[in-house]
Amino acid sequence: MADRQKIEHFKRINVEKPADIIIRQIRELILNGVYKAEERLPSERELAERFGVGRGHVREAIRRLEFYGVLRTGPQSGSYVTSLGIRALDGLFTNILDLEKEDFASLLDTREILEIHAAGLAAERATEEERETLSVTHRDFEERVRRGDDGLDEDLLFHIRIAGGSHSPVLRSLISIMTPEILSLTRGLEVAGGIRSREALREHAAILDAIISRDPRAAKKTMENHMKGSRVRGNIQER
Questions:
Q1: Is it the case that residue 82 has pLDDT exceeding 50?
Q2: What are the strands, taking DSSP E only, across 66-222?
Q3: Residue 191: what pLDDT?
Q4: What stretches of 68-215 show up as alpha helix (H) in DSSP?
Q5: Which of 173, 172, 80 is nearest to 121 (CA)?
Q6: What is the pLDDT of residues 159-208, one digit of tens each?
Q7: Shortest CA distance to 152 belongs to which of 196, 111, 210, 92?
Q8: Which one of 32, 51, 68, 114 has the lowest number of neighbouring Cβ atoms within 10 Å?
Q9: Pick from 218, 192, 193: which is nearest to 205 by CA?
Q10: Which Pfam families match (predicted)?
Q11: Judging by beta carbons within 10 Å of its beta carbon (0-12, 13-18, 19+), is residue 151 exposed, middle or buried?
Q12: What pLDDT does 172 receive?
């Protein structure tokens, strides 16, 4: 058997994220009745000490569980198990854990739908102050690119500003939740760079013009073009 064929017998090692392990433990405790509906979980600090991890990992796990409706968190009151049924909770936990295993193309599929809709709404609803803030963010991105930086943080902030201008809290939250993952995967796939940033900057300028002109159709079209450009620059095929 050729060496190239033999290597196929080795299996890829998938290292779980600490947040996934925390979610699995919380899942078992809830499904086994250790924590019942409306019961309060220990604080982030207590959980971090018990798990032996940083509080950021605990915070990520709680954020994901809260987003899916498994937990609810109130200011200064902690995190509580919701009143969903056990069968519903079991299905939600499966979805939460599978979500992190999706590839970059799947993430972009969802992002495109949200971003295009957000751009159209922002053209209709954004206030003058929000339009000015978006313009400032664009200029910050432009300055970073001029200095030779990739400006990736400013790039993504531009999209968060647009989501805010949509005046849709759910849409804004979804895009904001996805942004850190997109940032991480984008850097991991090395789609950033000088040429990429200059192309993205031109596309941002077209989106900005459409939003300032209060033209929803143009805003959606220019955002769609930007999303397609992102795929090309990342060498990510549409499915």
A1: yes
A2: 71-74, 78-81
A3: 47
A4: 86-99, 104-125, 128-146, 152-165, 169-188, 194-212
A5: 172
A6: 989 999 999 988 887 887 676 566 555 555 544 455 677 888 999 999 99
A7: 196
A8: 32
A9: 218
A10: FCD (PF07729), GntR (PF00392)
A11: buried
A12: 86
Compute the half-sphere exposure of residue 1: CA atoms within 13 Å on the CB side of its CA.
6
CA proximity to 227, closest of 203, 208, 206, 205: 203
* pLDDT over 60 (residue 228): yes
Place of tokens 């201008």: 165
Q: Which CATH architecture has domain 18-99?
A: Orthogonal Bundle (1.10)
- CATH 1.10.10.10 for domain 104-233: no
Identify how many contiguous H helices and E strands the chain contains and give both numbers: 11, 2
CA angle 45, 182, 148 (to 5 degrees): 110
CA angle (134 as vertex; 105, 115 as ends), nearest 5: 25
Distance of alpha carbon 75 from the chain centroid: 23
Q: Which structure tokens are listed for 78? A: 């902690």
Q: Return the structure tokens found at 150.
A: 């990739």
Backbone angles phi, psi at 185, to 5 degrees: -70, -35
Query: Residue 10 carries which DSSP code?
Result: S
- Residue, of 60 and 94, whose pLDDT is higher: 60
Tokens representing residue 77 in the block: 């009151």
Work out the number of other CB atoms within 10 angstroms of the CB of residue 38.
10
pLDDT of residue 111: 84
